[in-house]
Structure formats: C-alpha cells, structure tokens
Amino acid sequence: MRFMSFGAPNTDAAGWVCYATETAGLYAFARLVKDVRGQFVVRDLLVSSDDRMSATDLQSVKVGQIEREANAWPEWMHEALLKAPAERDAFVASFREGMVRKGESLSEKLTKDSRPKLTRPGGEDPEKFYALVARAYREVAAQTARPAPVLAEEAGVPVATTRRWIAEARRRGHLPPGRA
Q: N or C: which end of the chain has fewer CB within 10 A?
C-alpha cells in the first residue's frame, strides 16, 4: 500500500491509499476516515484494472486488510491520511448526484435525463417509431443488461410487447442482430 493524493500538485494532501491486489494489474484506491473508536475505515473505494475486470477480481480487494494495515501505521502517518482534499470530495459528490435515488426506478432516471418516453405506436410512420425504439434501446442497454423491462415500465406495456418492438426494430435494420 502507498499514499496517493488527489489534491493539487506538489502538496502533501492525502486521505487516499493505493492497494495493489494479488491480481496483477488490479488496484484499489481507498479513502480512509476515522470511525467513532478512532480507527481507520474505508469510506470510498475505487477499483481500477489494466484489463477486463471480473467478479473474482473484485473479491480480491480486501477492505479489511486495507483497514488493518492503515491502522498499524505510525501515528504521524495518520495525520496525513485525514487531509483528503476538497477536490476529491467535490468529484465524489458530483458523481453521487447522478445516481438513481432510492424509490426512483432506473427507467424514470433514464427518461428524465435523456430521451422521450416510448408510447404504443399509433397511426404515425412505423419506421419513425422503430427508429425511436432503437434509440431508446441503445441508451438503456448502455445502462443495464436488461433493457426490455426498463422500456416496458417506461411505456406502461408488458415486457413481451417491448421485446416485440425491439425484434421489429432489428428486423427493419435499426438495430444489429441480437446475441444468441
């Protein structure tokens, strides 16, 4: 483990440590704070990989080990760890602002943020409707592995209906073929 700083260059602002896991090329950046007992605990955790990350890789990040090692450091090092810079706090706060809130569905968040709501096709041009289905599908698929239920909830239709819409958008060439 080594100290990392997200503060201004040439300062000794800290608060974050870098933890190299047993998996080559996998690193965890942990922000430490003191709990009510005066012990360091991980408040924020960022994981970075040189290659594709797997669930097994995430299991190799040992939060308890990070905390034990930090708490074993000399007292003079503790002071440096508690000086997390405001720049990093602002980044974390802005990232959290964009998150889906408790009680808010993913489809509500996506609809509010980026695109018009899908509705059942009426008498309008079917090509236009299926182009809109394809656009909505691509946007939702970038956020979740199960876009059909999100689109169904948004449109107020059964999931089977949105799956038919997606299949028809594929058939018309608005989406590439699905994976088997």
A: C
Task: Tell me how far CA of residue 180 lies from CA of 12, 127, 157, in angstroms.
Answer: 52, 25, 25
Q: Which one-letter DSSP state was computed for residue 101?
A: P
Instruction: Encode 95-150 in three state secondary structure.
Output: HHHCCCCCCCCHHHHHHHHHCCCCCCCCCCCHHHHHHHHHHHHHHHHCCCCCHHHH
Task: Give pLDDT tens digits for 65-101.
Answer: 888 888 887 776 666 666 555 555 665 666 556 555 5
Backbone angles phi, psi at 111, to 5 degrees: -65, -45
Beta bridge partners of 49: 26
The token pair at 125 is 């041009």
Residue 147 half-sphere exposure toward CB, CA atoms < 13 A: 21
> Per residue in 32-67, pLDDT tens?
878 888 888 888 888 888 888 888 888 889 899 888
List 48's β-bridge partners, or say none. Answer: 27
What mean pLDDT value characterizes the chain? 76
- Distance CA(16)–CA(80), nearest Å, equals 10
What amino acid is encoded at 136 in this protein? A
Backbone angles phi, psi at 130, to 5 degrees: -70, -25
